[in-house]
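Need fresh eyes. Consider my entry:
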Amino acid sequence: MNKSDLINLLAQKRNIPHKKAEEVVNYLFGVLADTMAAGERINIRGLGSFMTKDYGSYTGRNPKTGESITVPSKRLPCFRAGKAIKKDVLQ
């Protein structure tokens, strides 16, 4: 499922205009992104947790040349599924 599919499903299931469903989905995604960018964690009961994880810098290798390079530190988004989702997926 992609973003367009989610918008279409929301509009169909809730019998709302497509434009309104698109606004709702875009707003939700924006809030999630802004909250994680601020370094905060998002917990949605029954779904899971969205958070960011900090990775320190390290020395890596260019696989083509074998040259050592320093990979800078970074912060990446991650998702941890809740128990209910894990249970549903395993069945």
Q: What stands out?
A: DSSP finds three helices and five strands in the chain.
